[in-house]
Each structure stands twice: as C-alpha cells, then as structure tokens.
C-alpha cells in the first residue's frame, strides 16, 4: 500500500506578505498588479470572503473588495520561502513532486524519520512549517495522488484530512463528478447526458460506454470512479515545452507584434539554457481580440543554435497567419518544444528550477508569463496507529 501526502500552502503569497508585515494581518490582501489586464496572483482568506479568487481579473477583485490592500508580487521572496518548505519535505522523503511553489506530492510509503504512519508525517511537516516559517499548510493523506489532492482541500485552511484505504468508497462515491481531475465544465455536461451527477453514478457506467464516448480518458474516468490512480510521485519530470507570453495593454495588429516577439524570444532562449536537452521546434502563439488562440510551429533541419535564430524563426511564423490586416491581437507567445537529447546546454533542469523560471518571467512588471507545460463524511484522523492505516 502506498502512502501519499499532498501539501498545499494556504494562500501562500498573501500569507508570506502578512507574515512579513504585521500591519497586513487580518486585512484583505490581494497580490496583483493594478491594471486593466492584470490578474490576481493570490488572495488572503480575508479577501476571499468577498469573493476574490486567484486568476480573477484585478479590476473585478478591486470592485468586489475595494478596501483590499493590493501588493505587487515579490517572487524572489516567495521562491526563497518555497525552498525552505521544500527543505522540510526533504527531511522526510526524497520522493517529492512539486506542482508549483506552494504545493507538492510526497510519497512517504517509506520515510526518513521512521514515523509509523503517513498521518504522523503530515502532522509533523505541518507543525514544522508552522513553527519554523510561521505559515500554515493544509495536507491530504491517501493511498494515491488524486485522492490525496482532494483530501488536502477538504479541511482548508490549516487542516489535515486522511482517507484511509477502507474508507475510499464512503468518501468518494457521494462527491459530485466534477471533483475528479480532468472533469471540467464540458466533460461534466457530457456526463450529465448519461444522467451522471455523482461519482457513484459514474461507477455505474460500463467501461465500454466510457471508452466509446471519451476515448482513452474514458478508461481514466472508469479507474478514478473506483478510487484507482497508479501514477507515481515523480521528482523530476522532463520538460515538454518552454514558452514566454505577454498580454498587450491594447489590442494590436500583427505588424506591431515584432518588438514583443523579440523580447519573448530572448526570455525563452534564456530559460532553455537550463535544459540539458535541445529543443527542435519553435512555436508562435497568438490570441486574437476575440480570444481565439492560434499557434504556428516550425521544426528546422537543425535546432536553433542562438537567440537570433530562434527570434528569426518566430518572426517568420507570422507569415503563416492569414487573418488580414484588420485583425487585432491581445496576446503573443514564443516557445520551444520537441526536446531531444544531445549536447549539454546548461545546468540540470530540475523541476525546482523550472518552476523558478516559470515564476520569474510570468510575474515581471510587464506581466510576462513563462509557461512550463509538464506534458495536468467523517473520516478518522486518530486511528493511524493500527496496522494497514495511513
């Protein structure tokens, strides 16, 4: 039996700000730049009471909570705190899969400290984070990753929730099907067509029906409805793509995108230097004023060997966008993908560094985004000493 812990820091960026400035404690804090196209990076729980959420447009957050304190993000500081949290994790296990600066999976089936259960490991980690860093974290403990992630959200903030192996069905079956990973609004609506509203309803569907309607993901749905998730905690996932993108302050024609493409190409090139593998494909991404996303890509016979080559290819890809001079664009991105081994291009690209690069560029004053795509009722907390318990 595997023992998986999912740790999720509570309102991480806003909590760091409140920790470091006592005058902010108890006040609604929103970490975001002010601007028509800025989005909320984080919101304290005081701000969330007003309906403010991460990724919400900053202007809407301002309307919902006019008395909030807006703070520009300080990602070097958040990264430093994240490293301290990660150091605490490493006291207990080396099987750590970071998802972002503020959350990670830990496989503690075998742990370094000799604690007998995953529940005790999770409690210890949360206490160490609280006493050493003056921050709170929520934790979920379960036999697999997807259940652990659901569990960590169950008692937020500052909570611990455990799903014991013999309690999986009692916990899982009553949940709405939308709680399953990968089930968004579109998939949820499709499932409603089968009269599927809860996970118990989903379990009643045959595998053949799910495969016919949803293809390979139908198999995944079939397994998740039964609490099955064999995916491992992977400390280092290979990078699939690296890109930088920027939203313009105003919609612009294609002819005016060159300066931004040049800047984004430089950022993408700099980020790619930390990969041991070589990217062979260059990608140009555009989002129209109507929010339609276009991508154009090119794989040259030899991969780009300089920032100048990358920039030239990205600029040339605009010629394959045939929407007319009247079309306006709100966003542009430059990326590289199709990584292959061959040649050392920099230090080992650990996932920790990839997250660092992602956040360095996503949250610059220009709101640049470095996107790292890596390929997305009553349970006991006290019976953890018995055999077979987490």
Average pLDDT confidence is: 87
Tell me about the biggest sheet? 5 strands, mixed
The class by helix and strand makeup works out as alpha+beta
The H-level CATH homologous superfamily of the domain at 241-373, spelled out, is DNA polymerase, Y-family, little finger domain
Question: What string gives the helices and strands in order?
Answer: EHEEHHEHEEHEHEHHHHHEHEEHEHE
Distance between the termini: 9 Å
Question: Would you spell out the secondary-structure blueprint of this structure?
Answer:
Layout: E1 4-9, H1 12-20, E2 29-31, E3 42-43, H2 45-48, H3 58-64, E4 69-71, H4 75-90, E5 96-100, E6 103-107, H5 118-133, E7 137-142, H6 145-152, E8 160-162, H7 168-172, H8 185-192, H9 199-203, H10 207-214, H11 216-224, E9 241-253, H12 258-272, E10 278-288, E11 293-298, H13 307-316, E12 328-340, H14 351-362, E13 369-373
Parallel strand pairs: 2-4, 7-8
Antiparallel strand pairs: 1-6, 1-7, 2-3, 5-6, 9-12, 9-13, 10-11, 10-12
